[in-house]
Automatic annotation (TrEMBL):
<feature type="domain" description="Nitrite/sulphite reductase 4Fe-4S">
    <location>
        <begin position="173"/>
        <end position="326"/>
    </location>
</feature>
<keyword id="KW-0560">Oxidoreductase</keyword>
<dbReference type="InterPro" id="IPR006066">
    <property type="entry name" value="NO2/SO3_Rdtase_FeS/sirohaem_BS"/>
</dbReference>
<dbReference type="InterPro" id="IPR005117">
    <property type="entry name" value="NiRdtase/SiRdtase_haem-b_fer"/>
</dbReference>
<keyword id="KW-0004">4Fe-4S</keyword>
<feature type="domain" description="Nitrite/Sulfite reductase ferredoxin-like">
    <location>
        <begin position="348"/>
        <end position="413"/>
    </location>
</feature>
<dbReference type="InterPro" id="IPR051329">
    <property type="entry name" value="NIR_SIR_4Fe-4S"/>
</dbReference>
<feature type="domain" description="Nitrite/Sulfite reductase ferredoxin-like">
    <location>
        <begin position="101"/>
        <end position="164"/>
    </location>
</feature>
<keyword id="KW-0883">Thioether bond</keyword>
<comment type="function">
    <text>Catalyzes the reduction of sulfite to sulfide, a step in the biosynthesis of sulfur-containing amino acids and cofactors.</text>
</comment>
<keyword id="KW-0349">Heme</keyword>
<comment type="similarity">
    <text>Belongs to the nitrite and sulfite reductase 4Fe-4S domain family.</text>
</comment>
<dbReference type="InterPro" id="IPR036136">
    <property type="entry name" value="Nit/Sulf_reduc_fer-like_dom_sf"/>
</dbReference>
<dbReference type="InterPro" id="IPR006067">
    <property type="entry name" value="NO2/SO3_Rdtase_4Fe4S_dom"/>
</dbReference>
<keyword id="KW-0411">Iron-sulfur</keyword>
<feature type="domain" description="Nitrite/sulphite reductase 4Fe-4S">
    <location>
        <begin position="426"/>
        <end position="553"/>
    </location>
</feature>
<protein>
    <recommendedName>
        <fullName>assimilatory sulfite reductase (ferredoxin)</fullName>
        <ecNumber>1.8.7.1</ecNumber>
    </recommendedName>
</protein>
Amino acid sequence: MPDLRFKPQPPQFTEVPRPRRAEGQWAFGYTEPLNKNEQSKKDDDPLNVRDRILYTYSKRGFDSIDPADLRGRFRWMGLYTQRKPGIDGGKTGSLEEEELDDRYFMMRVRSDGKLLSADAVRALGSIGVDFARDTADVTDRQNIQYHWIDIESVPAIWERLEAVGLHSTEACGDSPRPFLGSPVAGIAADEIIDGTTALQEIERRYIGDKDFSNLPRKFKTALTGHPSHDVSPETNDVSFVGTVHPEHGPGFDVWVGGGLSTNPMFAQKLGVWVPLDAVPDVWAGVAGIFRDYGYRRLRSRARLKFLVADWGVEKFREVLEKEYLGTELVSNPSPETPIAHRDHVGVHPQKDGRYYVGVAPTVGRVSGTLLVQLADLMDEYDVTGARLTAYQKLVLIGVDGDKLDGLLAGLDEIGLTARPSNWRQNTMACTGIEFCKLAIVDTKERARRLIAELERRFPDLDTPITVNVNGCPNACARTQVADFGLKGQLVTDAEGNQVEGFQVHLGGATGLRANFGRKLRAHKVTSAGLDDYITSVVSNYLVDRNDGEAFGE
Ligand code: SF4
């Protein structure tokens, strides 16, 4: 097996000519901050805010918080101020951030693909009940997201999380954001390789490490050894995707530079084979390139995708090997293609003869109470653990065959069905105007009503049609890769009024037929007209489709 151990060495930064225009790249000596975000990170390492939260702000209250911490460094602890209630989406861009700020926080707790025990699920639920007005959403980055947190409660919440091996460190901010891991790692019969230990090791070594706490912007990681590519690897900054090398066997290809929002780009394959135990070193190399060569002048260009687009994958690989790893990566002559899309909803056999059960809360909306009920069911039916998915779903792992029926009935009773309608299974929604300061439109509640209506109008839909509802152009619910990708914006209604609505991106997908949805100028729809718009497009598809033709084909 090739030796891929990372040999730390001072990067030489000699490979790439200095650009004509300063992009703020540290590797070229541009260490003077070029915008206020860079200045804030230079003034004080954002991870230092943890102690101020624990020992000052939580004791002295909201008004004691330094504004530079409140609207900047708090994010590194997974904390954002939430949107003040009652401000409509038309005002989102026109008000100063402090005018939108509520005195309560949203907190993201990262799961990083971990198998959550019943005790961990119960702890997550009890935090929602005790500190967050019973909120606890499952996000498409495998986080639990709370709302209505006050600063005084944060130390107690962290204590409960730490007791079950969880935390909110670097769940937001210009940092290594929560990792996506395969929900069926280690148990799926058709898995190529189990990447669990690699994700654990990346977290152990690098989360909370000040070498990686000042990145140009967010840095998203995904890792899967499952052949369905169940973590949306195309849309992450770095993805490790299971592959089989003809000589060396199972390992991971490395994909770099994915991201949506404005200027969406799919991650590009380096075409390499990395063994399991070298994954953390390669991760550190890719993150190091982003830290040192990433663009810092403009926030809108400060994602890895822009560097990858400018360099190309050949140069990226060369810099990674020469400057960061000190060794050459093994090329993989047979890069993998995914099998059909799998979100793991439903009942599936494990390789050990037991079963895993994927359940579908509606658009990830869960509650603290529901998580406590789920933990009780897990205990009652001896379920080994639960994982969150990249599709706002939950998967219960390790269910004995003779306990399946009882568990499924119990899940139905608490509203977590493993047999959802096609619409409920395939619709996601971001946070939206209820809590997000950037939002222009409502998303979760709108999507819930949409699902109910489409279930009524198309009760027997026999094919998956994906709907991703987003409250603004930031694409947190992956606007461009759904059959109906909905980007929230103000639109003009029939009477000429500016009202909540969506730009539609049609026919996008990840996986087997990965492509960005088409954005047609004419396909703008008011929020009120959304049900009828989707009904009309789907009705046309159902009438015109050929045998076996999927919606996006
Ligand atoms: Fe907020 Fe926009 Fe992201 Fe939705 S897409 S959560 S509205 S930033």
